[in-house]
């Protein structure tokens, strides 16, 4: 570790763990040695990340008995079949209950490797090395793991905490522009949930972030992780406040499912979802026109879409939202905004206004 | 509930839950109402149990939105494919995160329904209604859920606690003799682990148990659950003392895997495993001839096998044991006996003596 490394702690009692943020960390043997207790490590990565970072990680894991699984890249492979491939690799390598599963890659790799760690022999050690902005700010905090089912996204999984998260900011240099923007969608989300100063910081710093300036990225990652860790620490199993983190996600999942997994990036769908949440909040009288315009403007400046694809009509989106797991006791719950920098979870909204947002937004009256 | 119902509590802090033991409980609406918080219940059962008890359970669940999955019967169906069938049924019924999965049946149903509850939407409520002696004394306490993989038994799963366990002793009236004996294997195990008075009670009461006398069965279930709950409460995640519950299981799993799942009942394999553990303990000088004879005698009186099938030779058994998950850091750990009514977990044994037990036991020098 070096001077610019930041360390946060996600406070979950016995399951607390640190997040390390800084350049070059994935090649540093010291963090691995501190947090990997056994001698067997299964590195799970994908075809895109493997040529870039796999050897460096393996070199830093010198002294451990290593095995590797290289998955195909993409959300469409976040499936039970691919998850089984990790489990089978663990069995074929004869890995025992003291082994560690290390996820090297983005959110898809992290979700699948995490669920494999949660379910192999009823749970083994798990370490996350996220290499995308999205996974560094989002999937590495909160312990959500899972895979998709043809009938719904993230329908199978577990809450399972890693031993540590290693967010190497230098790994973002190889990220393509679309992935970087997708990560920024989640960053913007934290500002909207309950951190107005951070939202305003993002309004001032969107260009440095898009230019991948190290200081700006590092600050955005740290602040996002802090915001998320605060929410998660208060509500590990998502019974209440944690649902705020789903801002934009119920709309977004409907878009992802409707387009078929892998067409839209998760962050792109969430970006549109936040714009739709702002639109519905405005229709409910909770959010003014200016606030809505600021949200749409910042999302657009992050080079993200602000409206759903034209071939998904309102009725279809509503149908897709109805099967989403945020539906509780038959009532749909959404995260909506009550003023800039303040969101809430609610099922108290007029379904006619929701239909108006789904049918009209991005098609005529706003964009 | 009536006067003869016994209630135990498994003490696991926030995850504590009660076990109800008594005749007729599965048809009593009151326990369900007390422990099922949402309105959706998915009853998971199998083809054998469904005609006997499904309607009675569904009648007692009047007022809930019910769905059912009826699985094929047998250990060979404890697979990922069948587990997926439960998940798909939950999605097709549009069950939400507040739903409850209720397992009605033996250990296989409980293990699969439990893993489905643990992994559906990252965890929903779970209620167990075990209908075999084995599941009433064993799988209903401890939170182990899981499915088999072609490369090993119970290799995929989670630790997941039920909201409550309802052990209806009247359901044992329909159990076939072979299943009753398989359950008695686990009952005997508790005596051997650390409850000599219970072992001696079993020596005096094996005949009443085989005759399914209600008082005897009820006492055996309660005592077994208490013995297991005490061990589990001290060690929820199986890091130490809980491993004692695996007495006979490392040998037993090798037999089950070697024969192909479903040929031998789990309890039958464990019965032989306990006899083999007694044999190895005697070879190590920890257990005398008389003690070994008492173990083999009680197992035989419970109408259980005391030796492995002749077509599984010692070398094959050793190979199968090596992949078992109780292997830690490359060393095989076994539960062995140090005197009657006292077991311990150890990797300190001569592997030559283990080979002698695996090759010789039941083939020449003992039986």
From TrEMBL, chains A, B:
Cofactor binding summary note: Binds 1 divalent metal cation per subunit. Can use either Co(2+) or Zn(2+).
Residues engaged in binding Zn(2+): 186, 249, 266
Cofactor(s) needed: NAD(+); Co(2+); Zn(2+)
Metabolic or biological pathway: Metabolic intermediate biosynthesis; chorismate biosynthesis; chorismate from D-erythrose 4-phosphate and phosphoenolpyruvate: step 2/7
Catalytic activity: 7-phospho-2-dehydro-3-deoxy-D-arabino-heptonate = 3-dehydroquinate + phosphate
Record-level GO cellular component terms: cytoplasm
GO molecular function per UniProt: 3-dehydroquinate synthase activity; metal ion binding; nucleotide binding
Biological process according to GO: amino acid biosynthetic process; aromatic amino acid family biosynthetic process; chorismate biosynthetic process
Domain of life: Bacteria
Keyword vocabulary terms for this entry: Amino-acid biosynthesis, Aromatic amino acid biosynthesis, Cobalt, Cytoplasm, Lyase, Metal-binding, NAD, Nucleotide-binding, Zinc
Cited InterPro entries: Dehydroquinate_synthase, DHQ_synth_AroB, DHQ_synth_fam, DHQS/DOIS_N, DHQS_C
Main location: cytoplasm
Enzyme Commission number, as recorded: 4.2.3.4
Subcellular locations according to the entry: Cytoplasm
Enzyme superclass (EC): lyase
Chain residues that bind NAD(+): 73-78, 107-111, 131-132, 144, 153
Residue ranges annotated for the 3-dehydroquinate synthase C-terminal domain, each copy included: 183-327
SUPFAM superfamilies in UniProt: Dehydroquinate synthase-like
Residues annotated as domain 3-dehydroquinate synthase N-terminal: 69-181
Family per similarity comment: Belongs to the sugar phosphate cyclases superfamily. Dehydroquinate synthase family.
Role: Catalyzes the conversion of 3-deoxy-D-arabino-heptulosonate 7-phosphate (DAHP) to dehydroquinate (DHQ).
Name of the protein this chain belongs to: 3-dehydroquinate synthase
Species of the source: Candidatus Sedimenticola endophacoides
Lineage: Bacteria, Pseudomonadati, Pseudomonadota, Gammaproteobacteria, Chromatiales
